[in-house]
Structures are given as structure tokens and as C-alpha cells.
Amino acid sequence: MKKFPEAFSLEDNQRVILEFEKLLEQRGLKIPINSPLEKASLTILEMIEVRKDKTVHNQTIDCRESWRQAFSLADVARKTLNAQQHPDFDKLLLHLKLLLEPGDFSQFSASSISASAKDKETNNKIFELFAGVILFQICSNLRFDHPHSSKGDNPDVIGEFKTKKWAFACKTSHTENPKTFLERVREGVAQIEKEKVDRGIVVINLKNLIPHNEIWSARQDDQTGAWEYAAYLNRDAPVTLIRALFRNFEQDVYALVGSRQAFVNEFSGKKAIPLVLMFYCTVAGFTPKIGIVVPMVIKQMTGIGLPFEHLDLEAREIVDLFNDHLHDRTM
Prior knowledge:
Layout: H1 10-26, H2 36-51, H3 64-83, H4 93-97, H5 117-135, E1 140-144, E2 157-161, E3 164-172, H6 178-194, E4 199-205, H7 212-215, E5 218-220, E6 227-229, H8 236-257, H9 260-265, E7 275-286, E8 294-305, H10 313-326
Parallel strand pairs: 3-4, 4-7
Antiparallel strand pairs: 1-2, 2-3, 5-6, 7-8
Helix pairs in contact: 1-2, 1-3, 2-3, 3-5, 6-8
């Protein structure tokens, strides 16, 4: 029987980042000072120390983005540790090496508007890494598109699931324009079609469409300069808000092509299954007790296209497994 995803503690997030750093060092990858990994570890450590009254939190700084960064890297670290025994693990080392460079690697927050094209591309590659460490739990004989020399015309991950070879085209949408989303989908379908595989799935990260600071609002006191963070009493409340946002986006995409069926027809005769997986995640405040605000990861995967129940059995199985491992569910 499957367990629901765990609500990981700060201590567990700190532990997996430290173990992840050791894993990288064992592979000859030294963690630079002030790297994103070091900053994430220090951010979570500070949260633990503040909770234990061992240090004083600087209330004049809005910490929401640094918390999103830290929890995102902890999530990647946890999934990577789960994948380290896979025979193909070392094939992902070039992607893991990206985490040692300066940059914004968060998959739980939007890319900065001022980010350069190179920084956005690196962030996109981290999403490929994120999908890759999930697929280690599902597929065998995995191979990955090169993170530096890729021409952008190949699927990002290829692996075997049971008796067939599957390709996964991982994309990130950087605008709310449904036309741009449709372009990314068509790119993914074309990449899968030209590859020598049996089937494929387009996976799109829509983190840039989430109004992260609205989902987790905060205000700075005019007199003291202290930041106060809003919090939800119910864990499902922010999930409901984000689902509504993406249902509206889904309808905009269908309207652009004419109908849901017209979107499904984009996959007619193609190797890609007629369901695009859409990933979105953020962090929000939660109040387990009155007067206490704790960060809460909100992670969701949904689909656009053919209803899930209308997919063939093999496609449903691989989508289900992807969703389970995305949410850290176990048997």
C-alpha cells in the first residue's frame, strides 16, 4: 500500500543536503564556498536554530525566496540520494555539476525577470536534472542529453520501461502566453518523434506562471521594518488556488487551438502520448498552531490533453509512477 508523501522536517532537509554534498564529493565534485548548495544548507540550519531559540532571525529581510531556494535544492538532493545506486547514475554527473556554479536553481520559484538567457537555460537544465532523478526510480538504461553541447533538438531523457524505449522532453515555460506553451509542446513532440524510441512524454515546468509572492503573501511593517508572513490554516487552501489558476490556463490553451479535442489531435499518429504533464511547485506559510508560521511545500502535477483514464494501461502506469516519485511516495 502506498504511503502519502511525508511532510519532511527541517532536520531531514538539512540531513539530505549534507548527505548530498558528501555524495558529490565522493564523485570528485567539491562544494564551493557560497555555492547554492552551501547557501541552502545554511538557510535551513538557520531556520532550525531560530526555532530552537539558539539564534535571532533578522526580521527586516524578506526570506521567502531564500526559503523557496533551500527547499527546492533539498528536494533535488533527496531524490538524487534515492537514485545513487542506479547503474546509470554517473551519467547525470554533468547535470549535478551545474549545482556547484553560482545561479538560481530553484524549481519552486519563478526565474528572475532580470535573469540572462544563459541563467534561464541553466535553470531549465536543472529541471531536466529534477526529472532525471525521478526517472531513475522508473526506467532502466537511462541516457541524458548533454547539458552544455545540446542543440535543443533531442529529448532530454531516454530510458527503458518494461519492454519499450521511452523519451522524455522536459520544457520550461517562461511566460503566461498559451501560444508560447503550445510552442514548447510542439517542440517536445517533434524531438520525441525524430528519436529512435517507441513512445514519449512531454513534461513542462510551469513554475514561472505561479504568482509565488501572492500565494505566500507578506507585509513589512512601516514602523519597525519587520516582515510578517501570512499563513494558511488549511493545507489544501493554497493547492486549491493553484489548481484553479492552472485550470484557467488549460482552458486558454484549448481556446487557442479551438478545443480540447483539437489539442489532443496535435498528437495524432505521433510517438508522444496525448497528455502533457505539467509540474508546478511553490512554498507557502502554514499555521499548525496559532501564532506559528512554518514553510510548507506545495507540489502538484497535472495533465493537459486526453483525460488520464482514457490513456492506455502502460501510459497510465508510467504517469502514475512519475507522480508518485515526484511526491516522494513509497510502497
